[in-house]
């Protein structure tokens, strides 16, 4: 990924009213969350590579109605920091959040958006590096993709992006920007270096229909009708699929099946629960699914309802356990990626290999390949962070 033209409009640090968490919330938090805090502290120790050097990050959130928009208070400690900026529910306003990351899924530091230009995410390493959003316009390939909503998957709209995505179950399609991203995979351009298309099938929760999501980077590769069209010549003979830019698309379906056949299937817990922190139930922990890998995703957040002022805020935990099947194991992120912001929000994404390895966070974070990946990942990451720093100095 070469460099990078500075985008002057978004380069300036942006500032706005800060939103502090009331201390009563923090107190309530400590009483109801003691059990979980222990688990999380243990987990932080488990998933931190001994080589990683922890630094300080800003940890705050705010809602803004106009520029400049920023928050600069609170802190947390981790080897990586993040800033995220996305539209708020109220039109015309947006929300900025900053915090800490362990084992981030992004393979490169910097700011980017992968689906909507309104939703910017930055990852960086170094003390308080998440001060502001520094956006760089990257020179990347342009690819035409089909762009249809779920309610009209057969539409004829297209978009120009850097990669295409497709929900193979609903038929919804569109363009992706920034580093290609697929759930439970590392997010980086390397994701589509070795093949033109990558899919993941997820199932989680009780009797949930599997969700199949694919990303690809050739002309109209997310359009099933185009794929058929290109695979036949006028005489009806099947020939190599050729994209309009002249590059030959590798035959994909055959190798997909071979990889899928080689991978052992594991039995995993399949469960989807939302609960208040102190009423965690385990009703669906007996349900199972089978897949190449097991997954565990937990999101904890503080809910501010209408009654918040009167009864205090409530902490909600949403936990999903399930299975994934993949078309390629290259760049799958085993172990847990952990993201948190003060006491307000926390997210964990884990993939693991082994029977019932997703039954709890401890075993999910201890996945076999996670011992191998971090060192390579961190070396690459620090080289790239250094390059990014050079860009900042420029
Ligand atoms: C991309 O963004 C659109 C709205 O901008 C949203 O509806 C869609 O679910 C997003 N897709 C993914 C894969 O995140
Ligand atoms: C790529 O697509 C964008 C968005 O449509 C367009 O503005 C830009 O000119 C395109 N770049 C090239 C090199 O075709
Ligand atoms: C994965 O593939 C296996 C074998 O084809 C199938 O039994 C299982 O249901 C699939 N799991 C998911 C999550 O799609």
Automatic annotation (TrEMBL):
It comes from the Eukaryota. This is Activin_recp domain-containing protein. The keyword Transmembrane applies. It comes from Panagrellus redivivus (Microworm). The chain crosses the membrane at residues 37-55. Keywords: Membrane, Transmembrane, Transmembrane helix.
């Amino acid at each position: 990924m070469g460099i990078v033209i500075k985008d002057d409009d978004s380069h300036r640090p942006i500032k706005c009213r800060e939103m502090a968490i009331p201390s009563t919330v923090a107190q309530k938090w400590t009483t109801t969350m003691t059990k979980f805090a222990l688990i999380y502290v243990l987990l932080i120790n488990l998933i931190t590579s001994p080589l990683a050097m922890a630094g300080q990050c800003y940890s705050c959130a705010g809602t803004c109605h106009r520029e400049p928009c920023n928050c600069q208070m609170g802190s947390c400690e981790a080897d990586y920091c993040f800033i995220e900026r996305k539209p708020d529910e109220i039109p015309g306003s947006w929300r900025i959040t900053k915090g800490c990351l362990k084992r981030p899924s992004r393979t490169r530091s910097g700011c980017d958006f992968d689906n909507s230009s309104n939703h910017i995410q930055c990852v960086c390493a170094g003390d308080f590096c998440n001060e502001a959003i520094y956006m760089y316009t990257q020179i990347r390939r342009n690819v035409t993709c089909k762009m249809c909503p779920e309610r009209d998957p057969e539409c004829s709209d297209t978009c120009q992006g850097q990669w295409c995505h497709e929900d193979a179950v609903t038929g919804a399609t569109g363009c992706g920007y920034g580093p290609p991203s697929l759930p439970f995979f590392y997010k980086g351009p390397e994701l589509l270096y070795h093949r033109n298309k990558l899919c993941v099938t997820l199932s989680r929760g009780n009797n949930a229909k599997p969700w199949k999501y694919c990303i690809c980077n050739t002309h109209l590769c997310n359009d099933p009708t185009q794929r058929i069209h290109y695979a036949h010549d006028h005489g009806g003979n099947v020939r190599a699929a050729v994209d309009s830019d002249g590059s030959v698309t590798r035959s994909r379906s055959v190798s997909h099946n071979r990889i899928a056949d080689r991978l052992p299937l594991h039995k995993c817990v399949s469960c989807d629960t939302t609960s208040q922190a102190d009423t965690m139930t385990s009703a669906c922990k007996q349900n199972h699914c089978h897949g190449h890998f097991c997954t565990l995703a937990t999101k904890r957040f503080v809910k501010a309802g209408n009654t918040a002022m009167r009864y205090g805020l409530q902490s909600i935990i949403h936990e999903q356990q399930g299975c994934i099947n993949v078309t390629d194991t290259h760049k799958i992120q085993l172990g847990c990626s952990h993201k948190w912001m003060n006491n307000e929000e926390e997210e964990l994404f884990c993939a693991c290999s082994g029977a019932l390895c997703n039954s709890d966070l401890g075993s999910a974070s201890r996945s076999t390949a996670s011992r191998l990946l971090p060192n390579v990942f961190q070396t690459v990451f620090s080289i790239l962070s250094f390059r990014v720093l050079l860009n900042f100095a420029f």
